Amino acid sequence: MNAKLPSIGTTIDSLIGKGKIPDRYEKILKDFFSSYTKVALSHKYKPKDFVPIFSTFIDLIEKQFLKPYQFDLYHKRIRQPFDYTQFGLDFMNPLVNLADSSVVGHKHLDSIREQLDKKENVILLANHQIEADPMAITILLEPNYPTLANKLIFVAGARVTTDPLAIPFSMGCNLLCIHSKKHMDTPPELKHTKQMHNKRTMQRMTELLTEGGHIIYVAPSGGRDRMNKQGEIEVAPFDPQSIEMFYLMAKKAKRPTHFYTLALSTYHLLPPPETIESEVGEIRITHGGSIHLAFGPEIDMDTFPGQELAKNKYEKRKIRANYLWKYVQKDYNTFPK
Questions:
Q1: E strands along the chain, which residues?
Q2: Sign of dihedral through CA atoms 235, 236, 241, 247?
Q3: In angstroms, rounded to a whole number, what is the distance separating the alpha carbons of residues 326 and 318?
Q4: Alpha-carbon distance 23 to 114, whole Å?
């Protein structure tokens, strides 16, 4: 490796030796860099093309351990004085096999673009696979839908706004910051505080929808897809209450809001841990590869198959959530394995 390039291992050792990064992150960071290097080289990148960006990543997380960035309820991507958005894209690009990646549903994307141009809103009900889904989606949308990619707002759980290794990427995204239902009771004494935080975030979202012209990505599962015991990646079921909450917020707004499904396949870029963890500081190993997006048609949230079987509003919500989940699952199953 070129002697002029920074030695990532030496840098990590130095920061840990000085107490600027906790000891337990030594293996996490070194293993991450090792896997990142393997993938980047296999994608024909040269060390001079990717070592500096990983070095920048180390610099950025050092700052986060010293003084974590505090996210607002609605965080707008930071592009000055440091461009966190471009950093995230530059970091992810060496991991993506772009030639074998795909976007389907262009006619739906065209409809979405027209609705946004009329100052109407769009909510994407999607599955979620990796922390870096916002960057992966942006990489695929930017060539043909740059304005759409720039407008996207992601509903983000607290993990990506509190983990020092995730924060630099999150700073480059538009986020509505919430606490995931899966982590609401951890720790129990903070449950009420988290609930009130989520209530304020939903109020802020309603203000944005009233303003109009916004597109919001939400994962109604409340977490990432994971592998089952057979080694197959399963699209996590959608939570009926989550979908209903976003639907009610949309109805409160003074401008129309349209709902679409989005299936995505990004898992191998940065697989989540096998189990759901309450603590931050998870292992990060990249396998790289192709990524895929499938945008479905606009969904009628009041009229859908199976609703006639519902005996009450709660059953209707469950049937709707299952219908949306199956639609995303159907599109997901069309992706190359």
A1: 74-75, 102-104, 121-126, 153-156, 174-177, 215-218, 226-227, 233-234, 257-265, 292-299
A2: negative
A3: 12
A4: 51
Asked if 23 contacts 16 with a C-beta cutoff of 8 angstroms, the reply is yes
Distance (Å, whole) CA 139 – CA 205: 25
More confident call, 337 vs 174? 174
Q: What is the pLDDT of residues 76-97, one digit of tens each?
A: 999 999 999 999 999 999 999 9
* Mean pLDDT along residues 20-43: 96
Number of Cβ within 10 Å of residue 228's Cβ equals: 8
Write out the two tokens for 196.
Answer: 């009130």
Position 282 pLDDT exceeds 90: no
Which residue from 3, 97, 109, 92 is spatially nearest to 47, judged by alpha carbons? Answer: 3
User: 123 versus 254: which is more confidently predicted?
Assistant: 123
pTM score: 0.93
Name the phi and psi angles at 75, rounded to 5.
-100, 125
Q: For residue 92, how many C-alpha atoms fall within 13 Å in the half-sphere facing its CB?
A: 28
Per-residue pLDDT at 192: 74
- Residue 337, pLDDT score: 80
Give 295's strand partners: 262
Alpha carbons 271 and 225: distance in angstroms, whole number: 9
- If we measure between CA atoms, which residue out of 142, 163, 143, 159 comes closest to residue 151? 142
pLDDT digits (tens, 9 = 90+) for 134-173: 999 999 999 999 999 999 999 998 889 999 999 999 999 9
Q: Is the pLDDT of residue 1 over 50?
A: no
